[in-house]
Structure formats: C-alpha cells, structure tokens
Write a sequence for this structure.
C-alpha cells in the first residue's frame, strides 16, 4: 500500500521570486543546445521550434497549477501530479513517471556541465583539443571541467534551497546581459541580417510532408527538456508561503521563457551561419557577441553565459532531488531516499543524481546525446501528468480546487497529452535523425526508466518488513 502522507519537514517560506530566480535557468538552457538546432535546421525552423515549444510549456503550467494546488503539502511537482492522477488506474505509473521526471531533470546536470566545460575550453583553452577513449568512456578537457563543476555545485546545493535561490538571482541578472545583447543585435549588430532568414526559407521552404513533420517531432523531443522546464516551480509546492506564490512562479516563469527564447533565437539566427553553428555548437556564441560589441568584451560575455549554465545546475539539483524525495515519501522508491539532511534538503537524492551524471558525462560525451537519454523519461512524466489532470477531473470532481480552470482546458489537456505521446514515440524511434543520438542513448534511457520498477518492488518489500513502516530521517 502506498504512503499517502505529506511531509511536515519542508519549510513554508519560499517566495515566488525565489522559485522564479531558480527557473530563470530554463531560459539560459537555450545556450546549451540551440547551436545544434540552428546548425541542422536553419534559423527559421530553429526559431519556430524553440518559441513554439516554450509556448506549449507555458500553457502546460496552467494545467499543472490546478493539480499542484489540490495537493499543496506534497512535494514532487509533475511527478506527484502523475502519481495522484493515475493512482486509481495503475499504481505502476507512479514510479515510472516519477523516476522519469527525476531522470529528465537530473540528466540536465551532465548536459549543462559538459556545455559549460565546452564553453570554458573554447574561450580560454582553445588549443587543448585532446581526447582519450578508454573503452566506453570518452575523456576530454570539457568532460573533466564539467565533472569538476558538477561536484562543486553539488556541495553548494546541499546547504539549502534559499542559498541556491539567492545566488541564482545574481546569476540571473548577469545572464540578462547576453540575452539583451542578442535582443538588440538586429538594431546594433553589424553582422546581423534578416537575409539569413529569407535565404533559409528559399533553401529549405517550410513543408508539411511526413519527412519534415518527423524531423520537427524529433527536435521537439530534444528541446522539450529546455522549453517545458518552468514546470519545476510546481515541485516546490510544500515550500511556498502561499498558493499565490506558486501561481505567480509558474505563470511568470513560463511567459519569461517564451520571451527569452524568441529574443535569443531571432538574434542568433540573423547573426550566425548554419555552417558556423554546426562546426562549433557549444562555442559559436563567442564570435556572435564579438560581432555586436567587439572582442574586448568576450571574456565578460562568456562569464555571463557560464552564470546561466551554473543556474541550470542549481535548478536541476533542487528540482530533481525533490522529485526523488517525494517518491520516497509516497512509497514509490526505496525509503532510504526519503531523508532530509541537517539543512532540510534531500541530500541523499542529490548524491544519487550526481553519481548518475558523472557516469553520463564520460559515457555520453555529447550534450545532445544526453538529451536523448533524458527526454524519454521526462516526456513520459509530462504525458502522465497531463493525463493525470484529466483523470482527476473525472475521478475526484468534488476535491477542493483552490485554482480551478475553465472547462475549455479539458480538450486542451487532451490535445497536449496526445501530442506528447506522439513526440515520445517518434522521438524515441527516430533519435538518429539528429546525428547525435542512437540506440545506445535510447536503451540507456529506457533501462534507467525500468530501474524504477525494480526500486518500487524493493520498497514494497521494505514496507512488508515489521517495524519499518515509517520513513526514517
């Protein structure tokens, strides 16, 4: 029998501005993988892809807000939403969705770490291009720097969410600088030209045939990690001072991300050729900034980009650890993970994520290959959360709903659920179209997802052992 209790140990003193500061990392995530999309798809398709995905994510936040407000004392965000929505239908959905969500956010750690390492290498160690291959492991300077950053921010986050949020405010302010530079580049950048978009439309006219749609769905599969990430604000449900704080955090973060993605994609699309982006997808931003303000500012702008990536480490550790912690409280994974450290944060859950990501950094060396692995679980969780909203509307119509959406949101949730299922299926079966992922990445993602069922079986066994029916802390 699953535990159905809330956690009284998480403190209710989080402001919406704290959660918004952490979620600003989502907007900065465009710098981790936009270069890949720009190089492969071109500026028009990349712009439509990123802005459209962010708009979908902002829309989903409204749906998640209703259910998160129904269970204000339960941590876990959309993992909790999926668990509650499907509880009466299939108990296995809980561990699958929750572990998938944890995988999606936790894998962000390896993606962001390697992206930051590549940016540091491109700016300050450009000649150090050596790579060692040790069996299945790939070791280069970017991977070593990324691993060091991951360990550093792991230790930092163990001190508490408020410290992480406070630092994120300053890093978010610094991240605004390159975002604003790209936003005004059409006005002041000598290298920016609308002709790049016009030329792309002539070279690759937009099409609705299956081949084009399949390619679009695969890239939607990849960028959903970035575009949907503002739902993380729901994961801090038990820690908000009020439901108004949760509402403001979810809605403002979604709108902000749409605006940033539009500004960055439009600025870079008109400034950088596809070939340049494809040749150096992790470091081409440096030349883009130099084209606007001159090479004398490159060090500063790289530092600002790194601040945005570091925010991603903060956000991923905070959100992913709470999802895994919520699983333990709900009886969906081993009880040893349902423990808070002396700073009242899920330290053991953070440690589990760091160990997994250190392995991923050296086995899946490309950030986009890591996205293939991560997004399988993440989008499975999104699907179960959206459909969980529909089941709760049917199964618990009288449950108190502090935030109740209009009836029109029910067909919206249906459409988004079916669309997400389509993206998962096509993206998983066609990952090789991007050139950065294949069956090894797909098998890794599915294998980690299925591990959730093993841990769930262990937890069921633990619950049957006499004298061990409470989560120890």
């Amino acid at each position: 029998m699953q535990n159905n209790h809330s956690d009284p140990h998480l403190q209710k003193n989080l402001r919406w501005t704290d959660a918004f500061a952490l979620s600003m990392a989502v907007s900065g995530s465009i710098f981790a993988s936009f270069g890949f999309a720009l190089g492969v798809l071109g500026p028009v398709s990349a712009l439509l892809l990123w802005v459209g995905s962010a708009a979908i994510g902002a829309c989903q936040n409204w749906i998640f807000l209703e259910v998160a407000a129904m269970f204000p004392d339960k941590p876990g965000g959309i993992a909790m939403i999926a668990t509650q929505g499907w509880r009466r239908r299939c108990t296995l959905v809980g561990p699958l969705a929750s572990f998938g969500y944890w995988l999606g956010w936790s894998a962000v750690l390896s993606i962001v770490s390697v992206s930051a390492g590549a940016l540091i290498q491109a700016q300050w160690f450009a000649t150090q291009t050596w790579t060692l291959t040790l069996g299945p492991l790939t070791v280069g300077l970017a991977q070593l720097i990324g691993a060091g950053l991951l360990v550093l921010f792991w230790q930092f986050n163990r001190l508490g969410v408020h410290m992480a949020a406070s630092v994120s405010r300053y890093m978010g302010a610094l991240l605004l600088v390159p975002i604003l530079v790209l936003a005004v580049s059409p006005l002041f950048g000598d290298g920016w030209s609308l002709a790049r978009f016009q030329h792309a439309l002539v070279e690759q006219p937009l099409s609705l045939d299956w081949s084009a749609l399949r390619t679009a769905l695969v890239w939607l599969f990849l960028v959903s990690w970035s575009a949907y990430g503002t739902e993380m604000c729901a994961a801090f449900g038990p820690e908000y001072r009020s439901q108004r704080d949760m509402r403001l955090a979810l809605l403002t973060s979604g709108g902000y991300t749409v605006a940033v993605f539009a500004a960055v994609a439009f600025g870079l699309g008109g400034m950088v050729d596809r070939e340049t982006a494809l040749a150096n997808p992790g470091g081409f931003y440096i030349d883009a900034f130099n084209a606007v303000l001159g090479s004398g500012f490159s060090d500063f702008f790289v530092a600002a980009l790194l601040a945005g990536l570091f925010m991603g480490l903060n956000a991923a550790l905070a959100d992913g650890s709470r999802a895994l912690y919520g699983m333990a409280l709900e009886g969906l994974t081993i009880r040893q993970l349902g423990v808070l450290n002396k700073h009242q944060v899920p330290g053991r859950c953070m440690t589990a994520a760091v160990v997994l990501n250190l392995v991923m950094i050296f086995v899946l060396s490309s950030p986009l290959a890591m996205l293939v692995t991560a997004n399988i679980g993440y989008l499975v969780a999104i699907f179960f959360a959206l459909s969980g909203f529909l089941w709760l509307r049917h199964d618990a119509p009288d449950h108190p709903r502090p935030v109740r959406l209009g009836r029109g949101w029910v067909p919206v949730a249906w459409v988004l659920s079916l669309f997400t299922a389509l993206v998962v299926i096509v993206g998983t079966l066609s990952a090789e179209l991007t050139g950065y992922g294949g069956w090894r990445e797909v098998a890794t993602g599915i294998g980690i997802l299925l591990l959730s069922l093993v841990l769930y079986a262990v937890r069921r066994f633990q619950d049957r052992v006499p004298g061990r029916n409470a989560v120890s802390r």
Observations:
- The chain has one domain: 16-464.
- Residues 1-8, 469-473 have pLDDT under 50 and may be disordered.
- The beta strands are 131-134, 137-140.
- The radius of gyration is 21 Å.
